[in-house]
Amino acid sequence: MRTVLLLAAVAGLAPAPRATNEQLTEQLRQTESAFAKTMADRDHVAFISFLADETVFMGRTTLRGKAAVGAAWKRYYDGPKAPFSWKPDRVEVLDSGTLGMTSGPVYDGNGQRTGTFNSLWRRDQDGRWRIVFDIGCPSCEPTPSPTPSPPQ
C-alpha cells in the first residue's frame, strides 16, 4: 500500500506533457488576439498586462519598459472609439516554445489598412506569453515594380 501511495505522489510531481508547436502557435495567436481586443474594449489595464517588464516598443521613438510603454499608449485608450485595430495573420513559435512572433495588418478607425505590426513574444516561467518587442511599419503590401525604360 505504501508503494502505491508513493507512486501516486511521484506521478503527481511528473511534469505535464510538453505542448506541441501547433498548440503553442495557437496559444500565441489567441494571446495576440486578446491583446488586440484590449484596444476594442478600451481596456488600458488589460493592455499593460500583456507587456513584459523589459518590453521595447519601436516607432518614431523607442520606448523601453512596461511603465514607459503603458504611459505612452494611455492616450490611445482614451475616448469611446478605438483609433486603430490590429489582428494577427502570421504566427510562428520556436520549437523550444520560448519565443514567438506575430505579424499582421493594422487598420485605422475607419477600417482602412494603414500598416503592419510585428511583435516578438516570450513565454515566461508562468506559461504566459508577454510581448518583449513591437514595431509597426507602413503597409508591407508589395508595390508594383516600375516598368523598365527601353534601352536608348
Describe the 3D structure.
The chain is α+β, with helices and mostly antiparallel strands and 152 residues long. The protein has a single domain (19-136), classed as Nuclear Transport Factor 2, Chain: A. The protein has helices spanning 2-13, 21-40, 44-49, 66-73, and strands spanning 51-58, 62-64, 84-86, 90-93, 99-108, 113-123, 129-138. Strands 1, 2, 3, 4, 5, 6 and 7 form a seven-stranded mixed beta sheet that branches. The chain is globular, with a radius of gyration of 21 Å. Residues 4-9 have low confidence and may be disordered.
What is the approximate shape? Answer: globular
Helix content: 25-40%
| Radius of gyration (Å) | 21 Å
* Number of helical regions: 4
Q: Kindly report the average pLDDT value.
A: 88
Summarize the structure.
With 152 residues, this protein is α+β, with helices and mostly antiparallel strands.
